[in-house]
Specification:
five-stranded parallel β-sheet, globular
């Protein structure tokens, strides 16, 4: 499958690219804003694609900017499709359930869908997908969703303020990505896009509870898929600033005791491993699994890189001063034995390992040692 997409650098675009990587599809052709603005250039870039995803759009701004951002990009893409010598077989538009609701945003999304549908006479199947409110890891606060905004406020130590008491229908962004790509429902994504219906005050209360538990060193109840994904969404706003988490070592003349995991509900599995000097474990990422590392004996370096980004975050850890590092979802990670003796590491996950659905996708962390995550993909 050859895939091309617009809006690759946005919230939804990043999640689509992560899911494409997880299922092993080729790296997609990414149309930049500059390329999209020149139909002749865009036509050449999308020629021969099996699937074209139009994700680019504007959610916030002045009414004129919102209308121009959504309508102009769609019209330019439609022009490129008419010029394309080998148009894509399928064109999918990330529309909104607000399309046609008489607001600048809703009217501009409806007009964009109309422009792409009008060009389908050149021979592609057009799929107009109305998306509800999306939430998920690394959403942009004060822009993508109220979930991202509340998570950011809580991660910064504040309390979310509820100004509107509306009921929301929230869909995890990976489910939306699967629907747009055309994947059947899998272990970690559901392309039927099941919605979590919750009002804003309850959402604020729930996220506040998640933050309170996690700040105290506890895992909240992770009893269903939305609970896991909402927790992972909150955690994405805490990493790497809140890692590693220190552990309390209680010692007496008998030895020592260290509590590594406190979980308030849901499944879980604990296991230990030994790693020889100089050997690395990991080099993969997870889409939903919550995973904790704790070095019990020896010294190691835990290294992580957000999928699609370049820079690496590194944590030196030792069994002498016990700490834990929680792996954020959609970050490649590895642990390397940096000592001269065998490394003993304790791992905890929120779910039992299923070899038929491991939620584990190969991805090398790489060699960079920069201590930042703010690098564009």
């Amino acid at each position: 499958m050859k895939v091309a997409l617009t809006g690759a650098g946005g919230f939804l675009g990043w999640h689509v690219r992560v899911l494409l990587r997880a299922v092993g599809w080729p790296v997609p052709t990414v149309l930049t804003q500059a390329e999209l603005a020149v139909p002749a250039v865009a036509a050449d870039r999308i020629a021969g694609a099996d699937l074209l995803l139009h994700l680019a759009g504007v959610n916030r701004g002045s009414p004129a900017d919102v209308v121009a951002g959504n309508v102009n990009s769609a019209k330019s893409l439609a022009d490129a499709l008419r010029r394309c010598p080998a148009p894509p077989k399928r064109v999918v538009f990330a529309n909104s359930v607000q399309a046609g609701n008489a607001t600048p945003y809703g009217e501009s999304k409806a007009a964009a869908a109309g422009a792409l549908a009008a060009a389908s006479g050149v021979g592609y199947d057009f799929d107009d997908v109305p998306l509800p409110n999306l939430y998920g890891e690394h959403g942009r606060p004060f822009y993508n969703s109220v979930v991202a905004t509340f998570c950011r406020i809580l991660a910064d130590g504040g309390r979310p303020e509820v100004r509107v008491d509306n009921e929301l229908a929230l869909v995890h962004v990976q489910d939306a990505a699967a629907r747009l790509i055309g994947l059947p429902s899998g272990h970690t994504w559901d392309s039927t896009m099941p919605a979590l219906r919750i009002d804003v005050p309850r959402l604020a209360e729930w996220l506040t509870d998640l933050a309170t538990f996690y700040r105290s060193g506890e895992f909240p109840a992770l009893s269903d898929r939305h609970a896991v994904r909402m927790f992972n969404t909150y955690r994405s706003h805490c990493f790497p600033a809140d890692m590693p988490l220190p552990l309390t070592d209680r010692s007496d003349n008998r030895g020592s005791l260290t509590e590594v995991v406190r979980a308030r509900g849901g499944g879980g599995q604990t296991f230990v491993s030994t790693t020889r000097p100089g050997v690395s474990r990991g080099n993969h990422f997870h889409l939903a699994k919550v995973e904790r590392f704790a070095v019990v004996r020896g010294t190691a370096e835990i290294r992580l890189r957000r999928v699609g980004y370049r820079d690496v975050v590194s944590f030196p850890v030792s069994g002498v001063s016990p700490v834990v590092v929680d792996m954020p979802t959609m970050w490649a990670h590895e642990i390397i034995n940096t000592g001269t003796d065998d490394l003993l590491t304790l791992f905890w996950t929120n779910e039992l390992f299923d070899p038929t659905h491991p939620d584990t996708y190969p991805e090398s962390v790489g060699n960079s040692a920069a201590q930042t995550t703010g690098v564009a993909p």
